[in-house]
Amino acid sequence: MHSAIQNAKHQCEASGQRFTRLRQRVLELIWQNHEPVKAYDILDELKNDNASSAPPTVYRTLDFLQEQGLVHKIESLNAYVGCGDPTGKHSGQFFICHDCGVVAEIDDVEIRSVLKAKAEELSFRIDDEMIEIKGSCHECLNSNS
Fold this sequence. Notes:
Elements: H1 2-14, H2 21-31, H3 39-49, H4 55-67, E1 71-74, E2 79-82, E3 92-97, E4 103-106, H5 109-121, E5 130-135, H6 138-144
Parallel strand pairs: 3-5
Antiparallel strand pairs: 1-2, 3-4
Helix pairs in contact: 1-2, 2-4, 3-4
């Protein structure tokens, strides 16, 4: 997690943005594990640090982290995960275990290429491409057998 935080700090500085203590703390809370984290869970943790934390502050911080490419929002879960490769803007494909909640991110060029070609066939412009695939992870498959 330390390297993710350091990378985030350098990335923000390189783009002329401030990596405030709050932004760092929210990112740390998201990176604590590989499960998606909901905004109100982040708020609860922040209230342990500072009782005056409020939902708008958390949502603004999450928006900033998304804009910087440091986190992704898993829409179907209304939750956030750290980005596995925040060095460049990309779309991702997410495998979400419906048993334990773990999330794995890939950024498959072939999948993006197929989607782009299909969109062109339909004269459709893709603005954002986030694919969420639900199933069972290796650990859960082994524990259920």
